[in-house]
Amino acid sequence: MTVQDKLYGKIEITEPVILELINSPELQRLKGVDQGGYTQPYHPLGQVFSRFDHSLGVYWLLKTYGAPLEEQIAGLIHDVSHSVFSHCIDYVLIGGDGGKQSHQDNIFESFVKKSSLPKIIEKYNLKTNYLLDDDHFLLKERELPELCADRLDYSLRTALIYQNISQTEAQEFLNNLVIKDNNWVLKNLEIAEKYAQLFLKLNHDYWASLTGATMHLTVGDYLRYALEKNYLQEADLYTTDNQILEKTLRFHQTDPELKLLFEKMENKIPVENKPQAGAREIKLKSRMVDPLFLDGSEIKRLSEVKTDWKKIVAAELEPKKYFLKFTC
């Protein structure tokens, strides 16, 4: 299989288990799930990219840097339990926590075990339970503010597609990554600081922005209302974004409330962000990195040599709060 990837260029995939997993319904569904949630109405360049693009990218990044096959597979399947509109689900379901956006992680193991993936995995003499344990795969996944393949792929992919960096700059970051002691390490202080500043900009402009808060709140309101009215069933949440809209759009003519919620979701109604009567408080997950880098042969952390960065990281990792009120 040959794939032309926006970040990595031409990808050649030959490993039978990887090919079979890619062709599974669980991975194919992710082609219809927007990585950012419902980004098209909120950014001039439209949708960021799909969960499938990202999943394939995480796999390829791990393969390129020599991770074992088991870790490559774990990277490939790590997002299969995402609902439609990605982390917007945390603003739909009772008990969802927008400050953590952890619903997908919470259901991941049970989702995979009920899917077609274990049969494929075990066909190749691999163990599903082993692949589901992130403790085995520290290149694939680490807690913020550490670097991991997941975080590296979605940050560089977002920055490239939204033209925050050029293809040459994206490749510069990739060329300056090495693996040391099972950690992602940048080759020098300059490139570590450049990547950290890029990540900070992405967090401010997209992931933890007012735009992000508005999108998550409005998509959450729209889906929750559609579920309450039985226009959707909970199982529909694990189809694709377009399949959801095909089911709900036909009710707009008879349900003005649903139509209004969609207009808010489409970013067609102005919104104010300030504490006031009638404002809705929303928490939004905030992301930040504190990368490791090489100082000669020694591994150091950016915050060790840039003392202000430690304060920035601590502040950025706190969920952001917004107080949203629509003019209509």
Can you walk me through this structure?
The protein has 328 residues and is an alpha+beta fold. It has one domain: Hypothetical protein af1432 (Orthogonal Bundle). It contains 15 helices and nine strands. It has helices at residues 16-22, 25-29, 51-64, 69-77, 103-113, 117-123, 128-131, 149-161, 167-175, 189-207, 210-228, 241-248, 256-265, 302-305, 307-316; strands at residues 2-5, 9-12, 177-180, 183-186, 271-273, 280-284, 292-295, 298-301, 320-326. The strands form three sheets. It has a four-stranded mixed β-sheet. A three-stranded antiparallel β-sheet has the order 5-9-6, covered by helices on one side.
Features:
three-stranded antiparallel beta sheet; Hypothetical protein af1432; four-stranded mixed beta sheet; alpha+beta; 328 residues; 9 strands; single chain; 45% helix
